[in-house]
Specification:
Length: 120
């Protein structure tokens, strides 16, 4: 009997599992560090060898980056306990490039609309 095909590739499932687990860990840290209370994990992109993972956030101020860097080891340690993987990836935190591009497009559209209103 043939096994049903999986709807997602393995790395997509790993990325989603990591995203969820990291978001929970950041919530726990936000209880201590109020500056992190407004962070939103939009995605995780893990290397196929599981050595590195980029954690994409909706926004990331410089002070938030410093706090995340100080808590990175703790997040990775707790991640290793909560998610069963061959190895726990080293995390890096970045602003989601899709959100940055979306903000640029939105700003451009507002400027076009404003210029259109001024010319009519």
């Amino acid at each position: 009997m043939r096994q049903p095909t999986k709807p997602y590739p393995r790395m997509a499932r790993v990325n989603e599992t990591l995203r969820h687990a990291i978001a929970l860990e950041l919530e726990r840290i936000a209880d201590i560090e109020s500056e992190l209370s407004i962070l939103t994990v939009t995605g995780v992109e893990c290397d196929p060898d599981l050595k590195h993972a980029k954690v994409y956030l909706a926004a990331l101020a410089p002070d938030q980056r410093e706090i995340l860097d100080t808590h990175r080891q703790k997040v990775q340690s707790n991640l290793a306990k909560s998610v069963r993987l061959k190895r726990t990836p080293q995390l890096s935190f970045e602003v989601d490039p899709a959100i940055v591009k979306g903000e640029i497009i939105e700003k451009t559209l507002r400027q076009i609309a404003e210029n259109h209103r001024e010319s009519t």
